[in-house]
Structure formats: C-alpha cells, structure tokens
C-alpha cells in the first residue's frame, strides 16, 4: 500500500511538472509569434520606398507557419491573413503596404476581409477617375477603321451588304427554317 501512495505522489509530481512545462512552452510560443508580429509591424512602419511586397508576403508566411507549428490560438487568423495577402500580391505596392499594416494590427477575421475590400475600393477609386457625363468616344484607331458594308459578305446567306448577325434571311424561330439548308437544296 505504501508503494501505491508513493507511486501516486510521484505521478502527481510528474503531472505538475508536465503542466509547468506546457505553460512554459505556451509562453515561449506566444513570444515567438508575437516577435514575428512585431517584426512585421516594424517592417510596415518603414518608408514606402523600403517596403518590398514579396518580403512582406514572406514575413506573413513565416507568421502563418510559426503560429500553425506552435498551435497558436490565432493560427487560423494568420492563415487567413496570409492567404488574403497572397491573393492580392498584384495590387500596387502602396495598397499592399496599407493592407499588411492593417491586418496585422487587427485581430478579427471579419475585419480582415472588410479591410481588404475597403483598401481595394479606395485604390480603384483613385486610379479610375472617369467622367461619365461626357459622351463616349471611340478610340482614334477605331474611328478611322470604318468598314464599307458593300464589301462585306454574309456567311449565312452569301449576299453582300450585311453581317450574318444582321442577316434578313436568318433562320426563322417560329418556322424552324434554315437558309443554309435551302441554299444546299437549290
């Protein structure tokens, strides 16, 4: 009986030690993920001229992998942030910079997608200043290349002066007739 008590005591001691090691591991894990987050935030704080899109993407990938390896509580969030950034790699550098700086600071999954769409929308508005009140004008190369319809021959009926899409002898929907079938019979 005394051996059982000693066994239970040593087992309890081992469980307590294991619990302490797990807590220690959690704090180390948290520190390493937090260190990568601080590194990314410091990188985005640099001037835009020093910001490289692919370096930032590599840092986000490192963050995603570190959080996943360490089973960090926000590993899913960091994976979503990395995937969203990777899908927007072709956007202009200032837009990507703004995106990375904001998603690392926010901790809510929904905000990541909101932020990405707001940044994309603001850059679209900045890059496309259309004057829709002005009438549409064809580009110069299209204005000069008018086609003489007398030189055009229909592929459906073979008559000149119109395209097949505008063919007056086109297949009648209610009768089911096809002009090509008529042409072949003649």
Describe the structure.
The protein is mostly helical and 186 residues long. The protein contains 7 helices and no strands. The longest helix has 43 residues. The radius of gyration is 34 Å and the shape is elongated.
Q: Count every helix, treating DSSP H or I runs of 4 or more residues as helices.
A: 7
Q: Which residues form runs of ≥5 with pLDDT under 50? A: none
Distance between the termini: 112 Å
> Could you give a short account of the major beta sheet?
none
* Helix and strand run: HHHHHHH
Structural class: mainly alpha
Q: Residue share in helices?
A: 55-70%
What is the topological layout?
Layout (H helix, E strand, L loop, with lengths): L1 H43 L8 H17 L5 H13 L5 H13 L3 H19 L12 H4 L35 H7 L1
Helix pairs in contact: 1-2, 1-4, 2-3, 3-5, 4-5
Keywords:
186 residues; mainly alpha; elongated
Give a short summary of the structure.
The chain has helices at residues 2-44, 53-69, 75-87, 93-105, 109-127, 140-143, 179-185. With 186 residues, the chain is mostly helical. The longest helix is centred in the first third of the chain and has 43 residues, at 2-44.
């Amino acid at each position: 009986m005394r051996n059982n008590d000693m066994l239970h005591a040593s087992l309890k001691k081992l469980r307590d030690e294991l619990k302490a090691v797990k807590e220690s591991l959690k704090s180390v894990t948290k520190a390493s993920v937090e260190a990568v987050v601080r590194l990314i935030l410091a990188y985005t704080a640099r001037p835009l001229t020093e910001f490289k899109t692919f370096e930032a993407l590599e840092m986000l990938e490192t963050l995603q992998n570190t959080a996943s390896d360490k089973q960090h509580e926000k590993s899913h969030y960091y994976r979503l942030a990395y995937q969203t950034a990777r899908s927007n790699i072709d956007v202009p550098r200032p837009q990507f910079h703004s995106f990375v700086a904001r998603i690392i600071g926010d901790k809510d999954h929904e905000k990541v997608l909101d932020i990405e769409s707001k940044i994309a929308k603001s850059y679209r508005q900045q890059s496309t200043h259309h004057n829709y009140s002005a009438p549409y004008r064809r580009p110069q190369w299209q204005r000069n290349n008018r086609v003489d319809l007398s030189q055009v021959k229909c592929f459906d009926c073979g008559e000149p002066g119109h395209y097949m899409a505008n063919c007056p002898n086109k297949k009648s929907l209610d009768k089911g007739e096809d002009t090509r079938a008529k042409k072949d019979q003649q």
